[in-house]
Amino acid sequence: MEHAGCVVTEVTGTSDESVEEAIRNGVGRAGQSLEWFEVTGVRSTVLASTERFQVDLRVGVRMAA
């Protein structure tokens, strides 16, 4: 199946484990039609003894023709 192009949107992935897992979680939200992604921001919060990683992604998702 051909595709007509991409829709570009922003997604934030989160993880209690690592930045890499936060990226995987964010990319996973785009599903099978993911064409590309770009990391636009990384941050971490610390609440008590728990770290939480957040990664902002710009993603291109294929549009069906």
UniProtKB/TrEMBL annotation:
InterPro entries: Dodecin, Dodecin-like, Dodecin-like_sf. SUPFAM superfamilies: Dodecin-like (SSF89807). Gene3D superfamilies: Flavin-binding protein dodecin. It holds the Pfam family Dodecin. It comes from the Bacteria. This is Dodecin domain-containing protein.
